[in-house]
Amino acid sequence: MTLDIELVRSQFPSLAVKDGGRRRIYFDNPAGTQVSKFVTDRISDYFLHHNANKDGAFVTTRATSAIIDTVRQGMAAFFNAGTVEEVVIGPSMTALTFRMARGLESRFAPGDEIIVTSMDHDGNVSPWLQMAERRGLVVKRLEFDRETYRYDMAAFERLLTPRTKFAAVNYASNITGTINEVGAIARRMKANGGLTYVDAVQYAPHGVIDVQTLGCDFLVCSAYKFYGPHLGILWGRKELLADMPIDKLRAAPTYLPGRFEQGSAPFELLAGLLGALHYYAWVGGDKTVFGPFDVPARTSINAGKLKMLKQEERLAQRLIEGLRALPGIHVHGLTGDNEMSERVSTVSISVVGRNPDQLAEALAERNIFVWSGHNYALDVISHLGLGDAGVLRIGPVHYNTDGEVDEILSAMKELVA
Ligand SMILES: Cc1ncc(COP(=O)(O)O)c(C=O)c1O
Question: How close is the Cα of 414 to the center of ligand 1, in Å?
């Protein structure tokens, strides 16, 4: 079944907003997607009917605790987690990763080796570099191949030694869009006696996640990249989370995952995150009228993802073909028609003689939203030799249309002329 694009778009009020009578085209999605009414309805329902702190005796506090439990079960389904105790919700991927770096560091001894990669966003690099600095660890870097835009797996093998204890890797790049073989890396790390931490921030909006099959130890993503509110969500192996030393209030819970979620959370946003999961299920054809205490099935969530993915692969192909037909444009990522399933729909380009920031401004004048610069992927940009300018990044998702792709292509045609 294909996506009913008009029906999908009608769920996102922001897609219809105009500025001075001009439509908006949102291609800024890799930096944050729009949210559907499923999300805003859950948030306003929370404020209007259930607003309280958690774990008390009366009706609103009990509802708040139940909503937290529901969204956690939903995210456990999203990840295919073994238990809800493995799902930690926090402010962002970056905040959660700094937390994990502090928590994990005592496992490592001076001279132990860790691997970071040149494909990663800085959120999955700096926290580990700082951990290495604090503990006297040796940092090795896994490069990606500039021709194939894939990790050099032979080089990965050469990096491994008996002292390799940890690897932080990228599931899908926020610049090249490549989907990486993180399962193969995790399996190899495990055989070598090390842990693997997967940044799935850019993969989560596009692909089905199965932490059991991947065999990694941690995986982290951000809800605002998959049609939800500004929250980060981490899956971690229970035994690793349970053992982890963390700063803790005396009054805070000792059990999982409460020990990682101290203080009052933005409960309304948690309710909104549940709405994002309901949205996936709805796209997937699930006819349930979801309420605040309804956990969508993993099969329904994934059915929605797969439908979205089909539309995104088509849009990426149309966009890439159109860009490559223009003079002076270089696409930094996989471009083959048969390679669309090996990348997400995030497309980064350079234009000969043109500065990405200026191009982004020229597109903004046409009310087309894109990002430019390094997008925090400092090592990707430097490995590609793109200096300070970085790239122009165009990120269609399932709610974008062929017409919108054609509009940015004709705008680019004017701009490169
Ligand atoms: C690949 C990747 N990792 C990590 C992050 C950081 O996520 P957060 O904003 O939730 O800290 C981003 C944000 O753009 C990202 O694209």
Answer: 32
Nearest CA to ligand 1 atom 4: 123
CA of residue 162 to ligand 1 center, whole Å: 31
* Atom nearest to 230 CA in ligand 1: 10
Cα–Cα distance measured from residue 196 to residue 361, given in angstroms and rounded to the nearest whole number = 39
Nearest CA to 233 out of 175, 196, 274 is that of 274
Q: What is the pLDDT of residues 258-291, one digit of tens each?
A: 999 999 999 999 999 999 999 999 999 999 999 9
Q: Is the CB of 202 under 6 A from ligand 1?
A: yes
Tell me what the mean pLDDT of segment 70-76 comes to: 98
pTM above 0.90, yes or no: yes
- How many whole angstroms separate alpha carbon 338 and alpha carbon 316? 12
Q: Is the pLDDT of residue 228 over 70?
A: yes
What does the pLDDT read at residue 37?
A: 98
Ligand 1 pocket check for 123: Cβ under 6 Å: yes
Residue 196 CA to chain centroid, in angstroms?
Answer: 17
Q: Kindly give the number of the ligand 1 atom that is closest to the alpha carbon of 173.
A: 1
Query: Do residues 122 and 390 touch, judged by C-beta distance below 8 A?
Result: no
The domain 5-35+309-416 is classified under which CATH number: 1.10.3720.10, 3.90.1150.10, 3.30.460.10, 1.10.260.40?
3.90.1150.10
pLDDT at residue number 1: 67
How many Å lie between the centroid of ligand 1 and the Cα of residue 122? Answer: 8
What phi, psi does 386 have (nearest 5°)?
-100, 10
Q: Would you say the CB of residue 70 lies under 6 angstroms from ligand 1?
A: no
- CATH of range 45-278; options 3.40.640.10, 3.40.605.10, 3.40.50.2000, 3.10.290.10: 3.40.640.10
198 lines ligand 1 (CB under 6 A): no
123 CA distance to ligand 1 middle (Å) = 6
Largest Cα separation within the chain, whole Å, is: 67
Q: What pLDDT is stored for residue 243 in this prediction? A: 87
Closest-CA residue to 405 (of 312, 314, 319): 319
Q: Kindly give, in sequence order, each residue whose CB lies less than 8 Å from that of residue 279, ignoring residues fewer than 6 positions away.
A: 11, 36, 38, 39, 227, 304
Over range 234-246, report the average pLDDT.
96
Domain coordinates of the chain in residue numbers?
Answer: 5-35+309-416, 45-278
For residues 166 and 122, give the distance between their C-alpha atoms in angstroms, rounded to a whole number. 17
On average, the pLDDT of the chain sits at 97
